[in-house]
Design brief:
The chain is mainly α and 68 residues long. Helix content is 50%, strand content 6%.
Length: 68
């Protein structure tokens, strides 16, 4: 029965490792997403992503100036 016990122990370890984090991730998400598209209000992490977003989602519009 050694293998049976090892299997049960492995399942317990995997269950603990794969448990979802407790609480909400909304605060962490809000901190990470700092730039907002003025047209569609999509939240992006940085200015480079905003430029990429404009080229793919709003190709006829000009992206806003980068604020340094």
């Amino acid at each position: 029965m050694t293998r049976g016990k090892q299997k049960i122990d492995a399942q317990k370890r995997n269950a603990e490792k794969n448990q979802k984090a407790k609480g909400s991730q909304l605060e962490a998400r809000a901190v990470a997403l700092k730039v907002t598209c003025p047209i569609c209000k999509a939240q992006l992490a940085n200015e480079k992503q905003l430029g990429d977003h404009y080229s793919s989602k709003h190709p006829k519009e000009t992206p806003p100036a980068v604020s340094s």
